[in-house]
Design goal:
single chain, 271 residues, alpha+beta, Aminopeptidase, 5-stranded antiparallel β-sheet, 6 helices, 15 strands, 25% helix, globular, cytoplasm, transferase, Acyl_CoA_acyltransferase, EC 2.3.2.29, leucyl-tRNA--protein transferase activity
């Protein structure tokens, strides 16, 4: 690996870039990641600045895709005070009003959290790269953190049924990962977890919920495009999407990110 210094306000930090490897989102594509030297423990302000230029945290690693001729990993965030639920989200919200929310630091994770995570991975993601789950994997991914991280727990009476890992930022929250009881699929807990994080952003009088990367050509990632308005980091600038895109428009957006110059994004539906 070689040293790498992105053009940002954070160029006093040390970065590295990985060799090409298989892309986690798109088949038959290679990827490279720029990551912050993991010896750094970063404060909320630094993480916030990194997030605003497209970085993402996973465990102790803060990274950003840096792929040749592909710009499909679009950092996205939801302006919490402008967000409007669609009909599906309204149903999920109404369906889960019996749940109780509780917040705790990730370093206080216990066996109950791991058991819920283990069940979730085994039953919902047995075909993914996080299978099979292990306690070591869980701790490195969601418990250990280089910044201020916490769990947003959802309880059904005395049963923990959903956990969202979030990072505190100076302008909002970053949604890291959510896992939930696979037997509660009727509740749409993945949707509700995002809605609760958006609500929490507003109670903190902050602005955004960062959802990580939206990859238009990755079907499993397109749920993020349903949270409108959605702001996308395009060519170094945050641009707002004011309506949900059709499947055809999403495909066009993905195509443009693979084949055209950044200026041609203006011809799409991003406003």
């Amino acid at each position: 690996m070689k040293s790498y210094h992105p053009k940002s306000l954070l160029n006093d930090l040390q970065y590295y870039i990985t060799p090409p490897h298989d892309c986690s989102y798109l088949e038959n594509k290679s990827a490279r990641m720029v990551f912050l030297d993991p010896i750094h423990r970063i404060d909320v302000v630094t993480l916030s600045e990194l997030s605003r230029v497209g970085f993402r945290r996973s465990g102790d690693f803060v990274y950003r895709p840096e792929c040749h001729l592909c710009r499909q990993c679009l950092s996205c965030r939801v302006p919490a005070h402008d967000f409007q639920m669609n009909s599906v989200q309204k149903k999920a919200w109404k369906r889960n009003q019996d749940l109780r929310m509780q917040i705790m630091p990730t370093h206080q994770a216990s066996q109950i959290h791991y058991e819920l995570y283990e069940r979730y991975i085994n039953e919902r993601h047995a075909d993914g790269d996080m299978y099979p789950p292990s306690l070591d994997q869980f701790e490195k991914f969601l418990v250990h953190s280089c910044t201020e991280s916490f769990f947003i727990e959802l309880w059904k009476d005395d049963q923990l049924i959903c956990v969202s890992t979030s990072d505190k930022m100076d302008d909002g929250l970053s949604a890291v990962y959510t896992f939930f009881d696979p037997n509660e699929s009727r509740r749409s807990l993945g949707v509700f977890a995002i809605l609760k994080q958006l609500e929490y952003v507003k109670t903190l009088n902050l602005d955004y919920l960062y959802l990580g990367y939206w990859v238009p050509h990755s079907q499993k990632m397109n749920y993020k495009s349903q949270y409108i308005p959605l702001e996308l980091l395009l060519d170094g600038q945050w641009r707002r999407l004011n309506r949900a895109l059709s499947a055809e428009e999403i495909q066009r957006l993905g195509n443009s990110l693979m084949t055209t110059l950044p200026s041609e994004w203006n011809n799409l539906i991003v406003e």
